[in-house]
Amino acid sequence: MTQIIKGHIIYTESPESLTIVENGYLIFEKDQIVGVTDQLPEIYQSLDVEDLGDVLIVPGFYDLHTHGGQYPQCGIGMSHHLLDWLKDYTYELERKFEEPAFAKRVYAFFAEALISYGTLGAAVFGTSSFMGTQILFDTFIDKGLRGYIGKVCMTRNAPDFIIKDMATNIEDMHRLVERYKDQERVKLIVTPRFAPTSTHESLEALGQLSKEHDLPVQSHLDETVDEIKWVHSLYGSESYASLYDQHGLYGQRPTLMAHGIYLDEEEMTLTQKRGVMLVHCPDSNLNIASGIMPVRKYMNQGILVGLGTDIAGGHRISMAEATVRCVQLSKQLSVEKPEYQPLLFSEAYHMATAVGGSFFGRVGKLKAGFKMDCLVIDDLPLYKELYSVADRLEKFVYTGDDRWIIRRYIDGQRL
Ligand SMILES: [Zn+2]
Fold it and tell me: Which residues hold their Cβ within 5 A of ligand 1, which is an ion?
């Protein structure tokens, strides 16, 4: 069945500019977009067009790094240093996910918040709990979201109550593979928390698992200077990226690495060669004072960079806010390093929509052949009167909120 909605259609074909079809028709069949045009082709002229009026039809947001189990913790303990924050808040919270009722409550709250702010897909760290991870999966399926869901694997350097031995981790992962292998929209992702909570043996086992079941990978990389020193002290002098690489966890399958603030030349070359996607988490860079990711430098090297909220290192679940902060930080960095041109709004928006969406398949652009995922934005009459369609999109991202989003579609279905 063919459906058609009408409004101002905006997305990014490439980072440098917005592609805009004013008063355009978005034509879709089931879950697929089959056309975007300002003139309705003859074959569709007998069909009903749902004219939504003077609204913006835009892609959804895709959050490539977030910790679902930390959502209640957003904006708490922000005066703590990172390691104390983890000890006093994060680990204590994560241990509670062994209780199904608690996990259900938190993950429903988390998923509803994602939808509310227009995030239609997310790569999520759960916790080390098998039960909790299963509930996170079921919640995403139930809410209709796109997701990559990770059971966090840790075998050392965290409290005993959230560490699992490697045999248990691998067994849990096999059970999750079996249970969710037929899911189209919500998939399993191999998730070592990061190198310091792993060993050579555990990384090797997870690399094998990724290979055996053709599973993507997510983890953290080069977030703080102290963390990098810690990795060198635990594993010897090899680079952080090459450590993941030697265990088959660096681009052998689709891979997301959060932060990646301090990549050296060798790591940049490897990252580009392997097609690993780095995930910039601007709010987290500020809250943790980890440093600012040199996004422009990486882009100039041909490295893929997506965007994430890093809940609860980041305190807001809105990807619109992450987009704004991404532009702001790039401007700040360009003051110290004039060779790194600040990012344009369209570049940051492209990261939050098209680049993020690409990790989920043909998602994140409003063009034929892509999945019918989109948001409908109804801004204020005053702005409609005063500003261009492009300005209105920027206005929404900078100053809008969930109340401006009047519809959300995933795979052609309204949420
Ligand atoms: Zn993180």
Answer: 258, 310
Residue 290 C-alpha to ligand 1 middle, in angstroms?
Answer: 12
Neighbours of 301 (CB within 10 A): 14
Task: Decide if 311 contacts 357 (C-beta within 8 A).
Answer: no
Residue for token pair 């209780």: 99
Tell me if 156 sits within 8 A of 230, measured CB to CB: no
Query: Which amino acid belongs to residue 135?
Result: I
Q: Does the pLDDT value for residue 308 go beyond 90?
A: yes
276: which DSSP letter?
A: P
Report the separation in Å between the CA atom of 136 and the middle of ligand 1, taken as the mean of its atom positions. 17
Residue ranges of domains in the chain: 2-59+365-414, 61-358
Question: E-assigned strands of 30-60?
Answer: 32-37, 50-58
Strands, sheet with 119-125, edge to edge from the N-terminal-most edge strand: 61-67, 119-125, 146-150, 186-188
Beta strands in 180-286 (DSSP E): 186-188, 191-192, 217-221, 255-259, 277-280
Q: Global pTM?
A: 0.98
The secondary structure element, H or E, covering residue 26 is strand 17-29
Report the topology of domain 2-59+365-414. Answer: Urease, subunit C; domain 1 (2.30.40)
> Which CATH superfamily, name and number, covers 61-358?
Metal-dependent hydrolases (3.20.20.140)
Rounded CA-CA distance 11/8 in Å is 10
* 375 CA → ligand 1 middle, Å: 26
220 CA → ligand 1 middle, Å: 6
Strands (E) across 191-273 are located at 191-192, 217-221, 255-259
Mean pLDDT of 372-401: 98
- Report how far ligand 1's centroid is from the alpha carbon of 153 (Å): 13
pLDDT band, very low/low/confident/very high, at 362 (cuts 50, 70, 90) = very high
The alpha carbon of 65 and the centre of ligand 1 are apart by a number of angstroms equal to: 6
Closest alpha carbon to 281 in 306, 252, 262, 248: 306
Of residues 281, 149, 259, 253, the one with CA closest to residue 195: 259
According to DSSP, residue 386 is labeled: H
